[in-house]
Amino acid sequence: MSRFLGRRLIRAVLTVWAVATLVFLLMHALPGDVVLVLLDTVGAGSPAADKMREFLGLDRPLYVQYFDWLGDILRGDMGTSLLGGYPVWDLVKSRIPVTVELAVLTILLGLSIAIPLGIVAAARNGSWIDLLAMQFGQLGISIPNFWIATILILVVAARLQWLPPSGYKPISEGLGTNLLHMIMPSLSLALPLAAVMTRVVRSAVLEVLNRDYMRVAHAKGLHPQQVLWRHGLRNAAIPIVTVIGLELGYLLGGTVLIEEMFFVPGLGQLTVRALLNRDLPVLQGVLLLYSTAFVLVNLVVDLLYGQIDPRIRYE
Amino acid sequence: MAKSIHEFATNNAGMEGTLAARNPLRSFVRRAIRHRLFTAGFVITLILIITSVFAPVFATKDPFEADFSQMLADPSLDHFLGTDYLGRDLYSRIIYGGRFSLLVALLSMALSGLIGLLLGMAAGYLRGPVETGIMAFIDLMFAIPGLLLALTISVLLGPSTQNLIIALAIIYVPILCRVTRGAVIAVSQLPYIESARAIGGSNWRIMMLHLLPNAGAPVIVQITIGLAWTILSEAALTFLGFGAQPPAPSWGAILAGGRKYLNTHPEMSVFPGIAIAISVLGFNLLGDGLRDLLDPTLRER
Q1: Domain count, chain A
Q2: Cα–chain center distance at A38
Q3: Between B177 and which of A29, A178, B119, B262 could a Cys-Cys bridge form, CB atoms 3.0 to 4.6 Å apart?
Q4: The CATH number of the domain where A179 resides is what?
């Protein structure tokens, strides 16, 4: 187990390093001159532009810039924003918990729809509820999350006035107020996620429904519900957990749109600001953070396999 | 004797029936019509294609023409869905929006398909270090959330329709590459590939002539689903302002423009969203249906 963990950790670190390199190359190899963003009134060859390039260290060879940047990252320095000169880490760190909360709420909400719906659909294969689940699965992945957000704002906030239309309140102002503001953002992201997960849960449970151990559980007199939820769900858990890990990419991308729409001050909103201002150091930092989160969560998913199914041995 | 002739005739008729059913195209069409979800997807897609190709016929107004005497008009016989903040006819803009979405989706999937197929075939057929290199790079791209990478590429290249197509194409390459590689690995074990190699066929010839047609089915399915994904992502990027630039009649742009008028003129926010959802649903159903029809072993229960 510990050897597996070690090897898997090294692979995760290597992946993050390679992603960092890819992000660095993306920022520097693609056309688009940072200096001209800052000094948009002067030409590329002007003395002012050259001076700025020297100041930012952009006149050095690419590999020097790369190792410099990598060294900084390892020391926890993600560079400085081109606007205002704030350290990127300072801009980023207060926003991480906000986006994490949004992501966690979305996954919880998504699963609390998908698991019951998927299990019942599988248990009554071919019934009206199965049909309903399949339609939901098909329709849910076809509706853009930012349109769900628009409709929620229109109906729930503007017309019914049940929820505040946008904004964010930190947990320090009370969990209730905080959650009230998070319902619509997380629901917008959770519905498409729930659609995907319903299909996954349904087919995973269908897969195990006729296995021998299910028949044994029935035969020894367990209540059918107990068979389904305890034995069925547990054995169907591996594909479900795997897909959650993979869907995190969709979810993190979605936070960019949803945070911008609801004025949630998370990493997604920062990303939009960075994109608008061509603030490449911030963009670089956010991309790196998102990718690291994705790699780490999928590492955890790999490790969870053994917890879910003790038959899985790591060598 | 008469009886046996009769028997012969009926047997022959039966044979004819099976022969006709074995005509692959006819049998495909027959199964396709019976597959209700595929048919639904096909009809939706066909409607989208027809309204896009004949957009000037379906549209009642010029989608680009501002009419300041008609700003934010309510739906009427003249303007079926009302007008936007520049007095442009919303219905006509949605029709042209479909044309724009479809064009962006087709072009970026064509580009993505070309790169993905070449990389996937090279990885799946040549194996060895070529495969290791390609797949390591593909795995890396999976680690960066797709929408974020598309946004970054689009912004760095400078937001425009052309760069939007390039950005969306790049993001979908890893998926197509993986699917192609998987299909190619499965096919390249088969004896006829070995025979082609034995008679001295070049790698390029084998890939183009034998692997491409025989490993194509899963790739076609994935590209169809990719069209749905591209329509969604195009709308998302343009909605944020980093995709197609005004005055492109993109559904995402109409939605973004409608945000300010959500309370007073929700039409601008409601109808483009419905148009996106129906088109995406169409391609998703078509893709799932094709998967069922082309490869019964992949069938979802």
Answers
A1: 1
A2: 31
A3: B119
A4: 1.10.3720.10
Alpha-carbon distance of A169 to A181, in angstroms, equals: 7
pLDDT for B75-130, tens place per residue?
Answer: 877 777 788 777 788 899 999 999 999 999 999 999 999 999 999 999 998 888 99
Q: How large is the ipTM?
A: 0.89
B76 strand-pairing partners: none
Structure tokens at B135: 């797949």
Residues 6+ apart with CB under 8 A from A172: none
Token digits for A108? 């919880």
Of A118-122, B102-106, B186-190, B277-281, which gets the smallest average pLDDT? B186-190
Give the chain A residue nearest B138 (alpha carbons): A19
Q: Per the domain annotation, does A54 fall within a domain?
A: no
CA distances from B132 to A74, A307, B129 (A): 28, 31, 5
A277 is in which domain, residue-wise?
97-308
* H or E element that contains A92: helix A88-93
Q: Which two tokens stand for residue B108?
A: 């970026």
- Mean pLDDT in residue range A240-244: 90
Sign (positive or negative) of CA dihedral A269, A272, A277, A281: positive
DSSP track, B70-126:
GTTPPP-SSSTT-B-TT--BHHHHHHHHHHHHHHHHHHHHHHHHHHHHHHHHIIIII
> Which domains does chain B show, CATH number per domain?
26-56+82-294 (1.10.3720.10)
Nearest-CA distance from A67 to chain B in Å?
Answer: 20
Of A185, A272, A304, nearest in space to B239 by CA = A272
Can you tell me the distance from the alpha carbon of B121 to that of A166, in angstroms, rounded to the nearest whole number? 48
How far apart (Å, rounded) are the C-alpha atoms in residues B262 and B142? 36
pLDDT at A315: 55
Joined tokens for residue B150: 């598309």
* For chain A, the helix, strand and coil percentages under 3-state DSSP, each to the nearest 5: 75, 0, 25
The predicted model scores a pTM of 0.88
Give the N- to C-terminal CA distance of chain B in Å, as an integer: 51
Q: What is the pLDDT of residue A80?
A: 85
Tell me: pLDDT of B270 over 70: yes
B157 CA to chain A: closest CA distance, Å? 6
The amino acid sitting at B213 is P
DSSP code of residue A164: -
Residue A82 within a domain = no
Residue A53 resides in a domain: no
Residue for token pair 């023409």? B65
Of B240, B273, B284, the CB nearest to A150: B273
Test B152 with A253 for CB contact under 8 angstroms: no
Question: What is the rounded distance in angstroms from the CA atom of residue B270 to the CA atom of residue B251?
Answer: 11
pLDDT tens for each residue of B9-26: 444 444 444 444 567 778
